[in-house]
Amino acid sequence: MHICFLNPQGNFDPTDSHLTEHPDFGGQLVYVKEISMALTRLGYRVDIVTRRVVDPEWPEFSAPLDYYPGYEERLRIVRVPCGGDAFLAKEQLWEHMPAFIAALVDFYAGGLPDIATAHYGDGGYCGVLLQQTAGLQFTFTGHSLGAQKLDKLGMNLDNAAAMEERYRFSTRIAAERLSMRRAVSIITSTRQEHEQQYSHPLYQGAVDVDGSGFRVIPPGVNTEIFTTTPGGLDAGVAERLQTLHDAGEPYIIVSSRLDEKKNILGVVRAYAADPELQRAARLGLFVRGVSDPFTSIAGLPEQEIQVLQPILETISVAGVRDRVSFFDIRSQRELAATYRAFARRGSVFALIAFYEPFGLAPIEAAACGLAVVATSNGGPAEIFADGSGVLVEPTDSDAIGRGLREALQHADDYAARGIERVRTTYTWDRTAEGYAKVLTEALAKHVPPTEAVPDLDATERLHEYLASRAADTKRP
After folding, report:
1. Same domain, 163 and 238
2. Residue 47 parent element (H or E)
3. pLDDT band at 473 (very low <50, low <70, confident <90, very high)
4. Of 328, 357, 335, which Cα lies nearest the Cα of 262?
5. What is the pLDDT of residues 198-223, one digit of tens each?
6. Distance from C-alpha of 472 to C-alpha of 181, rounded to nearest angstrom
7. Are residues 404 and 269 part of one domain?
8. What is the Cα–Cα distance from 340 to 354, expressed in whole angstroms?
9. pTM of this structure
10. d(CA 314, CA 316)
11. Is the pLDDT of residue 404 over 90?
C-alpha cells in the first residue's frame, strides 16, 4: 500500500529544522513524521506531501524531494509548489489549495498513491479536493479544531471582524466541516477528543458524533530518543547543569512553545504564590531561541514576546527570579537528555494547558522518567486516568500548586507508573498499526462520487453561533 500524508503547511526536512518552534509547526508534524516512519517499518510506502518554499529565510524547504536518513527507500518528503515561493502563514494558504492539488496530481502523473490521510483543516480540504479530482479516498485527522480555538480566544460579535481577518475562522470551519463529511474515517487521539471536539455546535450536521465513522488511535513516543537509557548528549547536559549552582535541587519543568493556550503563565503564577512550592523545587522554563529572556527577549517573535512578557513580570514582582532558570533546548535528543538529568533529581514536568487535544509532550517526559502534572481538560485526562500522572484544573491556581506539590512529594512513584504507561500503550509502532488497519479498511469501502466542492465560507453559520452564545450569556 502506498500512503500519502497531506500536510500543506509543514516544515518537514531531514534535520527537523524549526520543528515545533513556529506557531504553524506544532506537535502534529512530529506526529506525522513518526507515524510515517513506523508505517515504513511495517512495509508500506509513504509520501509526506507539503508545500514547497523557496525563500532565503527558510532554505531547508526548497528541494522538490527530500528523505530522512535511513528511510530513503520507502519514505519521501514531497514538496509541491503553489502560491509563489515565499513562506506563507497557514491562514494565507486556503486560496492556493486547488493549485496545490493540481500540482500534486501532475507530480504523480497517473501513478497516484492508493490512499491519503489528511491532517488539520487545510490538509482535510486538500483531501476533499484530491478525492474530487482523482477519486482518491482519505481519512481525516483534525488534531485541534477551529471551533475550540475561537472559543478559547474569546471570539464574539464585537471582535469577530478582527478575529476573522487574523485567523480566517469562517474558512477554517467550512473546511473542517467538509473534511468531516467526505472523509472515509475520522481519526482521533482519544475518546474525549472524539466526543468533545466534534460535538461542538459549529460541526452539527457535518458529522455524526455517535456514528461509526470515528477511530481512536493514540499517538506514541519515539522510544529511541525519549527513554530512561542515557544517550550521547547526557554527559554534556549534566556538565552544563552543574554550572547552575543549584545544589542538585528538583525542578518543575515547563517545556512547550510560547502560546497563550499552553497556560505557562498559570504555572508561573501558581509557583510565585506558593512559598512551600518554591522551597520544594526550582522552576525551569524551556524557551527555545534565548537563554535569558530577561536580557534578550527582543530576539523573539512579537507573538512570543506577548506571551513571555507577563511571565517575566510575574517572576520579578514575586521576587522569585533567583528560583527560576531558563533553558534553550534545540533538539529532541537534547530535550530527552535534559529530561533525564532532571528526572534523576526527582523533578516534575508540567503541561497545564487550558485545553490539550492529546498531549504528546507529557508522555515524552514520562518516558524519560519525569513525574507528570497535566491539564484535566483534553487528552491528558484520558492518558493519565490510570493514576500514572497528576491531573489538575488549569484555571485553578491553588489546584495547580497542590498538584505540583503532590507530584514532587511522590516523584519516584509517579515516574515509575508513567514509564510503564508509555511502554504498554504509547509507542509509534502501535500507532502505525492502528493507521494501517484503518487505511486498509478504507480501501475496501466503496465511496460514491461526490458533488462539486463548494466554496469555503461558514460566515453565516459562525455569526449564528456567536449570536446564540451572546444571547445565552444575557439570560438570567
Report:
1. no
2. strand 45-51
3. low
4. 357
5. 999 999 999 999 988 999 999 888 88
6. 29
7. yes
8. 27
9. 0.79
10. 5
11. yes
Is residue 227 assigned to a domain? no
Residues 437 and 407 in one domain: no
Domain count, the chain: 2
Cell 552543574 belongs to 242
* Structural domain for 98, as ranges: 2-220+431-471
Q: Distances in Å between the alpha carbon of 134 and those of 94, 106, 250, 252, 450?
A: 20, 11, 56, 51, 12
Domain assignment present for 226: no
| Strand blocks (E) in 352-447 | 371-375, 390-392
Cα separations in angstroms, 269 against 136, 284, 375, 377, 387: 50, 14, 15, 19, 25
The neighbouring-strand residues paired with 75 are 46
Kindly report, residue by residue over 409-420, the tens digit of the pLDDT.
999 999 999 999
Q: In whole angstroms, what is the distance from residue 476 CA to residue 472 CA? A: 9
Q: Is the domain of 406 the same as that of 442?
A: no
Residues 6+ positions from 232 with CB-CB distance below 8 Å: 333
- Whether residues 108 and 47 share a domain: the answer is yes
Q: Give the CATH number for residue 372.
A: 3.40.50.2000
